[in-house]
Amino acid sequence: MADKIPTDGVAYWKANVRLILISLVIWALVSFGFGILLRPALSGISVGGTDLGFWFAQQGSILVFLGLIFFYAWRMNKLDRQFGVDEE
Questions:
Q1: Does the pLDDT at position 13 exceed 60?
Q2: Of the candidates 78, 66, 81, which has an alpha carbon nearest to the alpha carbon of residue 23?
Q3: CA nearest neighbour of 26 among 63, 78, 52
Q4: Burial zone of 55 (CB within 10 Å; 0-12 exposed, 13-18 middle, 19+ buried)
Q5: Where is the Sodium symporter small subunit domain positioned along the sequence (predicted)?
Q6: CA 1 to CA 88: how far, in whole Å?
Q7: Taking 50 as the threshold, does the pLDDT of residue 1 lie above it?
């Protein structure tokens, strides 16, 4: 019986992996998509004195990454409370 994972544990890890996958897709879209692949298409839009593609490659991706870190921590705390595995 100790080898079996409870159903709640399976649901918890499904939610956790889904959150990680969503974060990775956003990360890839912003860093690789907007910063590299879509840079020529975004070159006509000006942000802070430079084009939007360059801004995403240099600063925008870093800001999005920081936002993803805070979002992940907030959402994982919420999931932990929901499944009763929080640290409090």
A1: yes
A2: 66
A3: 63
A4: buried
A5: 11-86
A6: 27
A7: no
84: Cβ contacts below 8 Å, ≥ 6 apart:
8
> Which pLDDT belongs to residue 73?
95
- Quickly list H helices, 1-88: 7-28, 39-42, 52-55, 61-83
Q: What is the pLDDT of residues 41-84, one digit of tens each?
A: 878 888 778 888 788 777 888 888 999 999 999 999 999 888 88
The answer to whether 30 and 52 have CB atoms below 8 angstroms apart is no
User: For residue 83, which amino acid is it?
Assistant: F
Tokens of 1: 């019986």
The CA distance from 11 to 83, in Å, is: 9
Reference 68, options 18, 27, 40, 10; nearest CA is: 27
> Can you tell me the distance from the alpha carbon of 34 to that of 43, in angstroms, rounded to the nearest whole number?
11
Give the span between the Cα atoms of 14 and 77, in whole angstroms. 15
